[in-house]
Every structure is written in structure tokens, then in C-alpha cells.
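[scheduler] slot 2 assigned
[scheduler] job type: sequence-to-structure, two independent chains
[scheduler] chain ordering preserved from manifest
[runner] begin chain α
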Amino acid sequence: MLSYGSFLFIGILLVLFVCLYYEISRRRRIHKRLKSLEAELAGSSQKLAAALQIIHQLQARLLQQEQLAGIGQLAAGIVHEINTPLAYVSNNMEILEKYFITLGTLSARYRAWRMTLGGTAEEMVREMEGLEKNLDLEYILRDIPDLLEDTNAGLQQINNIVREMRLFSRVDCQRSFERYDINRGLESILRVVHAQMASHAAVEKDLQPVPAIQAVGGEINQVLLNLVINALQAIRGKGPEPGKIRVSTWQDGAFVYCTVEDNGIGIPEENLNSIFNPFFTTKPVGQGTGLGLSISYEIIVKRHHGEIMVESIPGEVTKFILRLPVTQNQH
């Protein structure tokens, strides 16, 4: 017979066995659950990565659409800027065509004289002088270089306008950070919008010497264009009287600053905290998408690790301030 001590020992073993069994079962369940969670997490990570890719694609499309909208706003002014030099280039070409016909007439008469060799030399000289006087040859020869110079200047002006416009078509093709001159960018934008602003706003510039910054130039140009167009619209919204737009740049340590200021209608205080929100706009339907400042915030703050700030006194002044790092090494 087993003693009491033996039964106690066996009982303890059974209890330990049962406890061990339940512990093993619990660990198996935990392991199984962990495997399941890992699978779910992997699936969620893939879905998240796909969702982020879609978001980036949508952001790129929104940026492109806003860029095209800005170019569309400039279309009338660009046509005017190109038509002006094109008109005098065309006029000069018509005059040059008449001049060449005249010179052709003179050349044909000269060839005829050489073939006939009739008459005295004195008669030929008198006839040549009379023909030159009637055709106003002296004026033609004096005017042709001026016409060619004006024509070349007009073609160069058209070429400059086209080159400036190319700055606003680089958002998709230029995605890397390169050296960017913000003063040059501002000058280009002001030239492109000159026709639109001529009768509505005077422009004051205070562009200090600043270093080139590391930036996606096409994106910064899009922000600057948006701020200048907004300033012009604010002035128009205030009334028919011409307004003033002031642009400034300067350097402070490792940062370059740029301001765009106007004396238009201003921004109500209750809207200052909302203007960078997507689709927020106070413009009439059809005159604004509400994406311009939101995309500008995305470009300056998230893409370029800078700041975009606004100050406004309704009815008096609005100032947007950009603060951009010279280098992106620290980010």
C-alpha cells in the first residue's frame, strides 16, 4: 500500500502537470494570436503604404491642377505681353519686305544697264542718282539696321516671356532640391504678371542680396505666384482705385525671408486661422478652389521645412511672410 506521503506526492505531481498543461495551452493560444496579429499588421502596413502612395499621387495632382489654374489666370496677360512685341515684329517684316522689293528693282535696273552699256557714263550716273532719290535709297539703307535691331529685340522679348513661363511648368519634372535664387524667381513672376497688374497695382521691390537656397524651384515659384495673384485679387476686391504690392527679401542667419504685402481688402481676424485649410475660400464660386494657400503651406512647411505666416488688418494691409532654410542638411 501507498503511504499518505506517496499520495501527497502524486497529487502534487498531478497538480503540477495540470498547471503545466494549461500554461502550455495558454502560450500556444498567445503564440497563435501573435501570429494572427502579425499577419493583420502586415496586411495593414501594406494597405497603409498603398494609401500613402495614393495620397502622394493626389497631392501631386492637386499641385499640378493648382499650377495650371495659376497659369490660366495669367493667360490674358501673357497673350498681351507676347502680342505687343509680335505686332511690331510683324510690322517691321512688312516694311523690310517692301524695302527688298525696292532694292530688287534697283538691282534689276543696274543689271539692265550693264547688259546694254548704252549711253554715256554721265547719263547713267544721272539716271542712277535719280532712281536712288525716287526710291529713297539712302533712307532705306539707314533704316534697315534699325528695323533688324527692333525685330531682334521683339523676338528676344517673346523668348524671355516663354522662358519665364517655363518656370511654372517644372513642378512635375523637377522633384529634387537644387540651388534656387528667390530674387530671380520673384523678378520672373513679376514680369509674367506685369500686364495684369499694370492698371491695378504699382509694385515696389526691396530685394536684398541673398544666397541661393536648396529648393524645388518650380514649387517655390508656384507659391510666389499664388501670393502675388492673391494680392492682386485683394486689391481688385477693394475697389477700382489702383493699389500697391510690395515684395521684399532678406537674409537672417541660416534663413532667407520673403514677404508679399498688399493694401487690398485684408483678411478678417476670424479667418486667419483657417486660410491654410484645404478648400477654405471666401472668394465667389468659380473664382477660387480654396487650395492655393493649403498647397503653399504643404510646399513651404512640409516639403521645405520652412514657415509661412500671415498678418492682416482688414481694409488696410495683408502681409505673407516666407521663412526658408538656406540648406536642407539638418532635415
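[runner] end chain α
[runner] begin chain β
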Amino acid sequence: MATTTDYLKLHFIVFLWSFTAILGILITIPSVEMVFYRTLLATLGMGAYIIIRRGNFRVNPADLIKLVGTGFIVSIHWLSFFAAGRVGNASVSLVGFATASLWTAFLEPLSQSRRVRPIEVILGLVVIGGLAIIFSFDFSTSWAFCLACSAASRRPSSQSLTPNW
């Protein structure tokens, strides 16, 4: 049963996602530079955390390949997300980003070698119907929407590379 705390967490996450899209539009540097600086800050923060916790920076070669692959996929995700905000607007970016569950439903079975569940297909069709209603068949922001969907479709790909993290 969902509690009030669960709903507050959900609303906070939605706020953060929308705030990220708005900041991506308001910050004037190009998307590539913005993703680079975000990555640099995250790397410094994680490095500081590991040093404070007296952790180990060593990674075996197999895990390093997975981490670099995941980093590449995540960078494409953020580049697509911020580019969608620049080409369209924040709401188009977030609607495209909301298709992540649809992409997960179709791409996860491929990466995990399992069958597609019928309920996932039905819910995917509901998502597509909802998108048609939201956009009212106005395709003036279709490029931005495609970029946002590209960002959303990267999530299951990165999760399949690092299932243990």
C-alpha cells in the first residue's frame, strides 16, 4: 500500500525531472558541453566520496568495459534529452522521457532473453494513445519528441550492461 511518503517521493522525482528539463533550456552552453560538465562534477563527487570512505578505485578490465559502455549510453541519453529541450520545449522533452516504460517493456525482453508480456504490449498501446491525445496530431515538435524518445530508450540499454550496480 502506498503511503503519503511514497507519494511525496514520487512528486519530488517528477519535480526534479521537470527542473532538469527547464535548466537544460535556460543554460546557454551547448548540450555537449553541459553533459561534459555534469559528468565532470559527478566524477569529482564520486571520487571525493570514495576517498572519504577510504574505498578502492581499482576496477577489473571486464567491469571497466561495462562501465565505459554504460557511460557512453548514458551520455547519449543526456545529449538527446537536452537537445530535445533546445529543439522543442520542456514539456515535449518530458513527454518523450515519459515513454521510458514503453521502451523498457519492448527492449528489456531482448536484453534479458525473455518473452514480451502481453500486458506490457497493452500498456504500450495505451501510452501511444495517450501521446496521440497530448500532441493532437500536431507534428511541429516531432524532431524534439524523437530526440526525447531517443533519450528514454537508452535507459534499458544501460541497465542491461550493469545489472549488478
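[runner] end chain β
[qc] chain β: The CA atoms of residues 123 and 148 lie 19 Å apart.
[scheduler] slot 2 released
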